[in-house]
Design a protein that fits this description.
Two copies of one chain form a homodimer. Helices cover about 45% and strands about 10% of the residues of chain A. The first copy, chain A, is α/β, with parallel strands linked by helices. Chain A has a four-stranded parallel β-sheet. A two-stranded antiparallel sheet of chain A has the order 1-2.
Chain lengths: ~200, ~200
């Protein structure tokens, strides 16, 4: 392969999640072939994002403004905060456009293995928001993993004193899910939380 | 998802080969998180490529110079041209660093289905290189598909008049390949071209 610039670009693209050297080479070639329709627009778009996108000082979302459009919106329920692990979870929630409250992005979950403590997460800023008052419900939408559950329990005990309603997402059989293909943990959870009809 | 710039970037990244909307979102998030170590270097690298990489006027390779470093090199065998379908094939050959001749990138193969004729490929420029003289061997390293084989035969008959040695890559069992897992076409080919020991 000739051209140091190309080698460098391939290496950088290979660093992106879900890509390896092989796909990075294919992408680089495609960019070189479609200079006008792909490479130049991509540079422009990346530059726009780099110049304009900020991290929201309140909730941790990415937007062109800080506070972000969700935090700044007067139409959204000010009294409910949905706590999520990552901005990707916030995006997933927003795609459903069912939840009309505010968010708080923790930036991770507690993990003894990875050495992630409460100080590494945006928990202090969440407590500030709560202590300012006006919040009545905290939805803890953290992942259904061991670390996620530990973080949920940590937040539960830490914010107990504020007398908030604290909820978590329902767990059970997903929509369209067939019992036959569910793991035992999910079936047990769904049985435990069975609803009366 | 908030921020039109982010939406636009996700859509552009999703257009790249081997990527869909889901992986494009993950990549965009990663870029936003690693602004200094990933986003800004990527913009710089893409800009470098856009500004500096040209298509070689002789062989069709991508390089910072035209003629490219391979075409310009005096150390490489001037008398042998390896004809490949795409720049990615040229890169694959160069990674082996066994072939020491020159290249010619056709930019595709003949295809009745896709309406690709000889005029759509870089065949005229290849004929010019041959007719200038000095070329003794043409290695037709086109894909082992029906269209690739048709293109090989087209080139064979078109360049017959120049009295060149024209060769093609050997076909057979790949290195480390086990008979059990080979398709019947490959086994038949390998049998047909069996070598005396």
């Amino acid at each position: 392969m000739s051209g140091q610039e190309i080698e460098k670009l391939v290496k950088l693209i290979a660093k992106l999640p879900s890509l390896g050297t092989r796909s990075a080479r294919r992408i680089t070639l495609q960019l070189l072939k479609k200079r006008e329709s792909l490479l130049l627009p991509l540079i422009q778009s990346l530059t726009d994002v780099a110049e304009n996108i900020k991290t929201c000082e309140i909730c941790g979302n990415y937007d062109t403004t800080s506070p972000c459009s969700i935090c700044a919106s007067a139409e959204r329920d000010q009294s409910t905060i949905c706590v999520v692990q990552d901005v990707s979870d916030l995006w997933a929630m927003e795609r459903v456009s069912f939840f009309k409250g505010k968010y708080h992005v923790l930036g991770g979950v507690l993990s003894a293995l990875d050495g992630i403590t409460a100080e590494d997460l945006n928990i202090d800023s969440l407590e500030q928001r709560i202590s300012h008052g006006g919040i009545t419900e905290l939805i803890l939408a953290l992942p259904a993993t061991v670390d996620g559950q530990i973080t949920t329990h940590y937040l539960l005990s830490r914010f107990k004193k504020y007398n908030l309603k604290m909820t978590t997402l329902a767990q059970g059989i997903p929509m369209g899910g067939e019992l036959e293909y569910m793991d035992e943990g999910t079936i047990q959870l769904a049985l435990n939380s069975r609803k009366e009809l």
